[in-house]
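Predict the holo structure. Ligand: glycyl-adenosine-5'-phosphate.
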Amino acid sequence: MDMSKMDKLVSLCKRRGFIFQSSEIYGGLNGFWDYGPLGVELKRNIKEAWWRDMVQAHDDIGVLPGAPSPFEMVGLDCSIIMHPQVWKCSGHYDLFHDFKVECNESKKRYRYDQVWGRWVEAKGQRIFVAVAAPGEEGTKETEQKALKFFNLRAKNVEELKWEGDLACLTAVKDFAPVLGPDAKSLGTLGEPREFNLMMKTIIGALGGEEDAAFLRPETAQGIFCNYKNVVDSSRVKIPFGIGQVGKSFRNEITPRNFTFRSREFEQMEIEFFCKPATSPDWYKFWRDRRYQWYLNLGLAQERLRLRDHHKEELSHYSCGTADIEYAFPFLAAGDFGELEGIAHRGDFDLRSHQEGKLVRQGDNLVVEQGPDGKPKYKGSGKDLSYFEEATKERFISHVIEPSAGADRATLAFLCEAYCEEEVKGDQRVVLKLHPRLAPYKAAIFPLVNKDGMPDIAQKVYRDLKKSFNVFYDDSGAVGRRYRRMDEAGTPYCLTIDGQTLQDQTVTIRDRDTLVQERVAIAELEAVIRARVQG
Ligand code: GAP
């Protein structure tokens, strides 16, 4: 765990206007974040890179490396609030929950599976010391808490007889000997209780329970509900994918680790529809393609991994899932956190929205029955099957879902980019963001504010502004201006100097190599375009 790197990054994000705590002037709101002037550009660039690479620039007629055949891609932008029946049929109403435990002493709530602790015996008493942090940090915390509880000094630490390593609270049967993460006495944690993660809202002015609705916890369901509209209106043929970028909301019990687990966040999701027999090949294709996307945009291979889920980890709809995970600095050394999930959802969603909510019965998915023997939640009754002209086959499409988080991706790119290094005896902080993602593509500096340099610099700025987000800075020494742009992740700095007045060239300084070259003003647009698209 590298908390010092994380602390420095969080502080840079605030100081330079990448990310602020939401409603900060009122003390903040836990689990909600705002993107500042630099952050909004970075996050937009990430979403636009995703949209461009996955949807717009996709070659609908060519076969991509690793793909079983050509495929089409289109987009959608669905509403955040949907008919409440959507969430009943999707399974979220019944199944999208975590277990929480509440402490009656500290009044704090914890996610049951995110409380860790260790059994320890001292002074003839055996207790389970619980903490809210895993790994090395959690182990250290248990020691501090145990010393305090048993009223022991650090030098008497050997009096603590530990049993085993840090374990999850879920393994503890009886909470009477448990010392809660923020409690001073034993047995203050209540029984684990189910907690639905969907955020409730009310539609219309009457405000009764019959007007209750939910903010979507994933963008995916808007795609499933519009599947038929897209097939009928855009004449796409299976295999094809629908992409969507948009906000999702989850009432996370313990939002944590900066923006990693928030209550409001953005997703970038693809639902890819294919024939059942080809779905395993498409699943593999999307796993590999999405993994490569992060590498192409600068995440280092040693900090990025693809991990297949164990059977017990699979969501209620999934018959196979892999996560793309990143070694975020707030995690213990060797630990990885989820960046994106690629799920093989089979025909669960389309059939649920057609027939009613499905449940697994052995190897089959069947409509779940209510106590009256009728479907527990009725589907739309619409025919969501697909007829393939070429083979005259009718089938319900299988779905592969690469589901990424825009905020987690932003955080991963920031963590990867953050770097402290020495330059000519000076310490600099630099964000080595991929040029495609950088908030500003270039900064323009007149070397001095005289001799006509500002006029040329302003013209360069205005001309480049038509093509890219660029920044103009004429204050302070050039070295300081470079440092400010290094912290903002700006890949190129252009300086208009004495020589510019003679030959209409400027220096272009590379953020990472620090190499400076001279480029003709007339060629700047083309030179920058070639570099930022790389
Ligand atoms: N449609 C499938 C789905 O929503 P998920 O694994 O629950 O799957 C997909 O979420 C991605 O959304 C995650 O990999 C993560 O990047 C992002 N995400 C999920 N919950 C989040 C949260 N509370 N805060 C930030 N990002 C989140």
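The chain has three domains: 3-74+226-353+389-413, 99-195, 426-533. Residues 218, 220, 250, 252, 261-262, 265, 267, 269, 338-341, 401, 403-405, 407-408 surround glycyl-adenosine-5'-phosphate (CB under 6 Å).
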